[in-house]
Specification:
By secondary structure, the chain is mainly beta. The protein has a single domain (26-169), classed as Exo-inulinase, domain 1 (Jelly Rolls), CATH 2.60.120.560. 3% of the residues lie in helices and 62% in strands. It has one helix at 176-181; strands spanning 2-4, 7-9, 14-19, 23-35, 42-51, 56-63, 70-76, 81-89, 99-108, 116-124, 127-132, 135-141, 149-169. Strands 3, 4, 5, 6, 7, 8, 9, 10, 11, 12 and 13 form an 11-stranded antiparallel sheet that branches. Strands 1-2 form a two-stranded antiparallel sheet. Strand 11 and strand 12 (135-141) form a beta hairpin. The longest helix has 6 residues, at 176-181. It starts with a strand and ends with a helix. It comes from Neorhodopirellula pilleata. This is 3-keto-disaccharide hydrolase domain-containing protein.
Length: 182
């Protein structure tokens, strides 16, 4: 077992993949999501993101492919801003309230290199974390979404993803209530 971000993770319950070649994601006009095959509940993903043009990018996880409900981490790689949001759909016929989102947490960093960042995302049970470099930027517990797609989004830009590493964990044995109450 090893300690990662305050949690003990049984290394025997981890499967991992790494991609050696950089991936270039682009969407010249509009918004496009790129997701890995499969469904992810508990994972750690590390990558280097480099914005190749002005525009917006971010990370999606625990995303329902049908409704697109899930977590979105918006990243401004030039200003050093990260915002974690829970996006969801309202009931049919809810008009203006159809798309609902809640900003869960925001964090700021001083970019060492404009438009480029090394990051790590961890989702383990209800624990969610984003680290930029070696610094944990966002850290919270949220139970809105438990399982779904994992990947990146681009909005009117090109992004290079390199040094990508993805580890899939088994869900924690204890529930949040057990962890909080001992």
């Amino acid at each position: 077992m090893s300690r990662r971000s305050g949690y003990l993770i049984n290394e025997e319950c981890v499967s991992s993949v790494s991609i050696d070649d950089p991936i270039e994601l682009k969407c010249q006009a509009g918004f496009q999501m790129f997701a890995f095959e499969g469904s992810f509940g508990c994972f750690r993903m590390e990558a280097t993101l480099e914005l190749l043009e002005e525009g917006k990018t971010g990370i999606i996880f625990r995303l329902d492919r049908r409704t697109h409900d899930g977590y979105f981490i918006s990243l401004d790689l030039f200003k050093g801003v990260a915002q974690l949001r829970a996006w969801g759909s309202g009931p049919d016929g809810s008009g203006e309230d159809m798309m609902q989102f809640k900003t869960l947490q925001a964090g700021y960093w001083a970019p060492e290199q404009r438009g480029r960042v090394d990051l790590r995302v961890i989702a383990y049970g209800s624990y969610l974390e984003l680290a930029v470099g070696d610094r944990v930027l966002l850290s919270l517990a949220d139970q809105t979404f438990q399982q779904g797609s994992l990947g990146f989004y681009v909005e009117s830009t090109r992004v290079r993803v390199s040094d990508l590493s993805l580890e899939h964990f088994e869900s924690p044995v204890q529930s949040d209530e057990q962890l909080a109450n001992g």
